[in-house]
Backbone:
């Protein structure tokens, strides 16, 4: 049997069928991908979504009380689309940690995103000792390290050189301590602020307050996904860098006169002549 | 008749084109003319060194030559398979070579797009009048079609004969060596873009070729070499590149979050084609030699998972490489693909 190429008529027919499929499917796909959904009773709705980053293992993520997943080594991000524009309560719960709960506003065709910050209910402190064996409550360091740590507390906490006056940088945002208060500012004038500066996708600010109460803040730095700051009266605290109402604020070492430094990628507290390593954050 | 082609003849680059042109002229002088054969009744098969014909190949070719509408204006193109050593060739080589075969099979269904490739056949008179294969190009196999197309004012075509010939799959002693050979071989193939300036120049000098025909032939060539390089890359990045270049305005949109999954869905549907490819390839393969077990057959199916990778690294990138050589005037010579037969070492009982 001789094999002939497909006839031109058949090829034309195949071409027309696939062209028709393309013309028919393409607008549907574009509308679908852009968030258009049919909702019973509402008709065609331009939906939005929520995207939560959970940098912890074994945390349960819920939106309006409905579990959407449990975080793990390979599952750090959760996306829930097809959401009618409205407010949604998002919670991230993990045993032994304060539950992270925020109300996110979903707008049309926009994804509201947030990064969960889980603070341990009981922050563990290891006393840093020199020349003693390590135990469950102490961390042994060499004499040289001990001296280096102590020396770090002798001078004021270093501020980065740019932007002027910033205590610490994290991408395009920086933390400032001014007149005893702590602020976080979006420092890239050419770019829109990231979502933690937005109370809703269409309402963003370029500065947020971390602490502006009666206490006098003296230093601040980014650590463990939040901002750690020290007040003269109250000690050392951590706060979520977010303008969302109810952002997490927790004491790390609530003693007058306590100070902190970030040394060797760890948070070290000093009170008197004692040094403590904060673990679990 | 065995012909030895002397090196260094003027106007030649070392390669298949110069070799077979020399051989064809020698055959004309010493066989065709001496025996008084009519040029119109001689058909020339130009094979690669590793081409093996199946039993009915010449019968099939002769049938097409004798029955096609315009034998004096037609070249004949079989389907190149790479079956000679397919069971010995590494997985990488198998999937790439079968992809090439499939592409040729697809082209056979669109005769107006077919140009001669690798092993092919040409009527001798037309070959003689066109001056044989061009001696100073890398892609003499496709160039001979365009030579004839221009020589006969656009009145020339390729007849797909839908019958295979078999050649060697790339198989160097090491996997790395095989990968390098495949890369170079595909760079040579995609260096066929050198035909585009030839065509455009020849078309500009030949007003007897209908403009629509010029437009169609040049368009097919330009689109073909452009898409061979760009489409695999576009398919590879379409799902996520917008996230990197879209800026925050795009990145917070529902579209940006849905785009990867939508692209993934379409690509997954397209992957169904790989299942068909795997099935067809198994049907085209020679029988499994007794020294290979069922696992080898399974690997023949699984190899198709490599296609997204091979399309980029052994199609798009060598194509881009070849076209950059042309663009920057760093012209390539003919690189002969080393053909190595890997033998299966079977322990003596």
Residues:
């Amino acid at each position: 049997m001789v094999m002939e190429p497909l006839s031109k008529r058949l090829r034309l027919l195949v071409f027309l069928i696939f062209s028709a499929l393309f013309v028919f499917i393409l607008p549907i796909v574009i509308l679908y991908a852009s968030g258009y959904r049919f909702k019973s009773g509402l008709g065609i709705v331009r939906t939005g979504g929520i995207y939560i980053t959970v940098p912890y293992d074994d945390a349960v993520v819920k939106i309006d009380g409905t579990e959407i997943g449990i975080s793990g080594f390979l599952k750090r991000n959760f996306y829930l689309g097809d959401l009618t524009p409205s407010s949604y309560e998002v919670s991230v719960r993990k045993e032994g940690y304060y539950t992270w709960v925020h109300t996110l506003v979903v707008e049309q065709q926009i994804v509201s995103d947030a990064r969960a910050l889980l603070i341990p209910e009981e922050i563990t402190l290891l006393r840093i000792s020199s020349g003693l064996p390590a135990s469950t409550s102490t961390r042994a360091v060499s004499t040289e390290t001990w001296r280096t740590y102590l020396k770090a507390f002798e001078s004021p906490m270093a501020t980065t050189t740019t932007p002027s006056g910033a205590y610490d940088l994290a991408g395009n945002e920086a933390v400032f301590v001014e007149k005893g208060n702590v602020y976080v500012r979006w420092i890239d004038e050419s770019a829109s602020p990231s979502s933690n500066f937005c109370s809703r996708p269409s309402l963003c600010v370029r500065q947020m307050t971390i602490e502006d109460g009666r206490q006098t803040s003296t230093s601040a730095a980014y650590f463990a996904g939040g901002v750690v700051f020290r007040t003269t009266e109250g000690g050392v605290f951590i706060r979520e860098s977010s303008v969302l109402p109810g952002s997490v604020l927790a004491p790390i070492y609530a003693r007058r006169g306590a100070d902190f430094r970030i040394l060797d990628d760890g948070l070290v507290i000093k009170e008197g002549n004692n040094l403590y390593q904060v673990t679990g954050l | 008749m065995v012909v030895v082609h002397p090196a260094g003849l003027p106007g030649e680059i070392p390669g298949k084109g110069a070799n077979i042109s020399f051989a064809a002229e020698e055959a004309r002088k010493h066989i065709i003319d001496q025996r008084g054969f009519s040029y119109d009744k001689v058909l020339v098969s130009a094979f690669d060194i590793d081409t093996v014909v199946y039993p009915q190949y010449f019968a099939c070719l002769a049938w097409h030559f004798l029955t096609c509408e315009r034998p004096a204006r037609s070249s004949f193109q079989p389907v190149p398979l790479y079956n000679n050593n397919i069971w010995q060739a590494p997985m990488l080589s198998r999937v790439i070579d079968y992809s090439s075969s499939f592409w040729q099979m697809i082209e056979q269904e669109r005769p107006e797009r077919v140009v001669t490739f690798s092993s092919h056949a040409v009527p001798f008179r037309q070959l003689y009048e066109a001056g044989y294969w061009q001696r100073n190009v890398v892609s003499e196999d496709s160039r001979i079609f365009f030579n004839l197309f221009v020589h006969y004012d656009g009145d020339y075509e390729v007849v797909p004969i839908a019958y295979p010939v078999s050649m060697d799959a790339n198989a160097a002693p090491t996997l790395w060596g095989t990968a390098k050979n495949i890369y170079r071989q595909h760079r040579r193939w995609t260096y066929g873009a050198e035909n585009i300036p030839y065509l455009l120049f020849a078309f500009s000098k030949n007003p007897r070729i209908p403009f629509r025909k010029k437009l169609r032939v040049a368009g097919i060539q330009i689109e073909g070499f452009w898409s061979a390089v760009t489409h695999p890359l576009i398919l590879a990045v379409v799902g996520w590149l917008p996230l990197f270049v879209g800026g925050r305005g795009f990145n917070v949109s529902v579209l940006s979050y849905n785009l990867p999954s939508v692209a993934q869905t379409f690509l997954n549907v397209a992957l169904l084609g790989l299942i068909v490819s795997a099935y067809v390839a198994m049907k085209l393969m020679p029988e499994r030699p007794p020294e290979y077990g069922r696992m080898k057959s399974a690997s023949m199916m699984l190899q198709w998972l490599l296609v997204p990778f091979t399309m980029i690294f052994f199609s798009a990138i060598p194509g881009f490489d070849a076209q950059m050589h042309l663009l920057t005037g760093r012209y390539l010579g003919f690189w002969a693909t080393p053909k190595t037969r890997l033998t299966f070492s079977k322990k003596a009982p």
In short: Chain B is about 55% helix and 10% strand. Chain B touches chain A through 18 residues (CB under 8 Å).
